[in-house]
Amino acid sequence: MTKWFWRNSPGESAGDVRQNVRVGSVELRNPVMTASGTAGHGDELSAYFDLSELGAVVVKSLSAEPWDGNPAPRVHETDGGMLNSVGLQNPGVEAWLEHELPALRRHGATVVASIWGFTVEAYEKAASMLAGVDGVVAVEVNVSCPNVEDRRRMFAHSCPATREVIEATAAAGKPRWAKLSPNVTDITEIAAAAKDGGAEAVTLINTVMGMAIDPETRSYRLGSGAGGGGLSGPAIRPVAVRAVHDVHRAHPDLPIVGVGGISTAEHAVELLLAGASAVQVGTATFRDPKAPALVARGLEQWCRRHRVGAIGDLIGGLQ
Q: Over the stretch 50-73, which tens digit does the pLDDT of each residue have?
């Protein structure tokens, strides 16, 4: 593994910093969460830190029915991150509710479920399966998925499709956050469509579309072939900062969850200043499973050193 990942500040004694933040109607104990797709479906990270330390655990995206995902190989390390084509493999909502959610609740985790589908109807079905479920505070709607009803164009690449999906997922009866793709001309327009559809917040960003080819074999490095994969990690953090900044400027009343390349407290502060109300730590977890907790602790220490009395004071604080 190359050394493009992270650096954490040495431990300091805890300060009296107000860490709670709000994402729409959801109050979190602190602004740091896991990112969907990087922390498993359940309590996999509980062996490394107390899950209740985090603002929330966002689980890997779930579909109404089990899905096998893409063929191997599914992951390829790049100079500045990781390319993946896992293909949203998951056990389905019903199995997750039975086998994974109970363990998360036992560990005291605040849980955000993530859902996806190939059709609007599939999103609606997944959402309805979460209705009335205790222990899930919000639903992150991953609209960065191929729409089989529109020539497999991503839902998140279309304002009408994004709005339609978010409207359909009202069946969950819970606050919805729309996870958007950066692979668009104007992400502020897509964010507006998500808001119009009923999203309380948007999660920015999902992975950046990429591809890797092996010069020796002259073949694709990922099993998805010409489909390529999604780039995550440090290389996309500036893309995330720009997306958060632009959406916050265009829609200052729309809460944003910032994600993309975060591995230190300073990275989290950068996204908060750009306008995020909370952040998610993803790819860093593959190098160090404790990364989300370390970022959360480091953020409190950063505020203490800089005499910031409340993390919420950083949100949109760009000068």
A: 999 999 999 999 999 999 999 999
